[in-house]
Design goal:
With 207 residues, this protein is of the alpha+beta class. It has helices at residues 34-46, 75-86, 93-104, 110-123, 125-128, 140-156, 158-161, 173-188, 194-205; strands at 2-7, 10-17, 22-29, 54-56, 71-73. The chain has 2 domains: 1-73 and 171-207, no CATH class; 75-155, no CATH class.
């Protein structure tokens, strides 16, 4: 599940069945909220849809909102978060190592990542805790990169934890590709009135 935006305060929240290769439901939203996702998950349940697992990108509080449903965080989005914090070409030794770890998260197991993070935290503890004269942390972006991996660790490997029971994709690429093609269609017909663009979007997602 994911939301994509076309104009300011206009987005399309979409639920896609990975195995069926089909969009189940979509909804126009002004902004992406945890409650909106929860409402639609409940709606799917009321329609007797069995939800085996959820794959989503990171939104504050979203990953913790589904309780008993196995929830996989998109690995690509996790890597993008790390890249945003430590840049594409980090210079600091700690950042270089965190970038290397982020690039490997789809190829290793949860316990391996946990050990690597504990090792880096032990090695760079003094570095991470450095403060300036105002008693504020100096390397805030490195701290955020480390905390992001540590906090999301339990949601990064659902696709491996449940691999013998159900097939869970590790990314939201199936839905992202739909969004990309849809936006290409809208761009090609950019001279249309907004109401007709909305019909085009709805027809495209209904396939």
């Amino acid at each position: 599940m994911d939301t994509t935006y076309f104009w300011r305060k206009y987005g399309i929240m979409t639920f896609r069945a990975y195995e069926l290769r089909k969009n189940l439901y979509r909804k126009e939203v002004a902004r992406e909220t945890k409650q909106a996702y929860l409402d639609w998950i409940q709606y799917l349940k009321d329609q007797w849809r069995k939800i085996l697992a959820i794959v989503c990108d990171w939104k504050k509080g979203l990953l913790w909102g589904f309780w008993v449903i196995p929830t996989q965080m998109c690995l690509f989005h996790q890597q993008q978060i790390i890249r945003r914090y430590i840049t594409k070409n980090p210079k600091l030794e700690a950042n270089i190592e965190f970038k290397e770890i982020a690039s490997m998260i789809g190829k290793i197991r949860k316990n391996t990542l946990k050990i690597w993070l504990e090792d880096r935290h032990s090695r760079y503890k003094k570095f991470l805790c450095e403060k300036n004269m105002s008693n504020k942390y100096i390397h805030t972006r490195t701290r955020k990169a480390y905390r992001s991996l540590k906090t999301n660790l339990q949601y990064l490997y659902m696709f491996k934890d449940y691999e013998w029971e159900i097939e869970i994709p590790s990314t939201t690429n199936s839905l992202e590709s739909i969004f990309w093609h849809m936006k290409q269609k809208v761009w090609l017909h950019r001279w249309l009135r907004k109401d007709r663009k909305l019909k085009l979007i709805d027809e495209f997602l209904g396939k």
